[in-house]
Amino acid sequence: MAGLLGAFACQVALAASLVLRVVDEQGAALEHAAVALRPVGPMPPLKPGKAEIVQQGKRFKPLMTAVPSGTAISFPNLDTVRHHVYSFSPAKSFELKLYIGTPAAPVVFDKPGVVVMGCNIHDAMVAYVVVSDTPWVGVSDAAGAVRLEALPAGDYELEYWHPRWAGSANEVERIPLRVSGDDRHTLVIGAQP
Ligand SMILES: [Cu+2]
């Protein structure tokens, strides 16, 4: 009997989800906000994944990427001009010297924090990676929406960051958040124009 109860409790615990609507202080939808839910208490094992940030039309796509720590990101250059990707951010400092095509090795983002990348050749090129020690990460879409699913119900810290955020330059903000079911919240980020 105890075993059955345990299995039931486990299914219920994994049923929670969180939908955030991210807006600025004027209430306008805010795209490209990185969010992460870090459980207060035991952390499930992170499954290091893979991601891709391409360079196309002298832009990085996507502009914003949110990943769990340990994710390997490749940087294919789809342009016919060479790019030179670099970051000086403490969470991940690296350089991919002038190249076309796909560099042989992806870059592993192994420390939590905000990583700002640029191109040495094209000053207007910028991309962001927000690395968090949790499997539950996301980026808001054009409607400001981001959905995190398969969450155990419980207490979390919600981490968030946005390139236009008026707060601390490269530190995520953290607020406590309890997730108990199919929860919906509005997250207001004071973003500069
Ligand atoms: Cu470039």
Present as ligands are: copper (II) ion
- How many β-strands, per DSSP? 17
Question: What portion of the residues fall into strands of 2 or more residues?
Answer: over 45%
Number of domains: 2
Overall shape: globular
Helical stretch tally: 1
Mean pLDDT: 90
CATH-defined architecture of the largest domain:
Sandwich
* Broad CATH class of the largest domain: Mainly Beta
Succession of helices and strands: HEEEEEEEEEEEEEEEEE
Quick one: CATH superfamily of the largest domain?
Immunoglobulins
Main-sheet strand order equals 6-12-11-8-9
Give the biggest beta sheet. Answer: 5 strands, mixed
Task: Explain the overall architecture.
This protein is mostly beta strands. It has one helix and 17 strands. Strands 6-12-11-8-9 form a five-stranded mixed sheet, with no helix packed on it. A four-stranded antiparallel sheet has the order 13-2-15-16, with no helix packed on it. The chain is globular. The site of copper (II) ion has 6 residues, from loops.
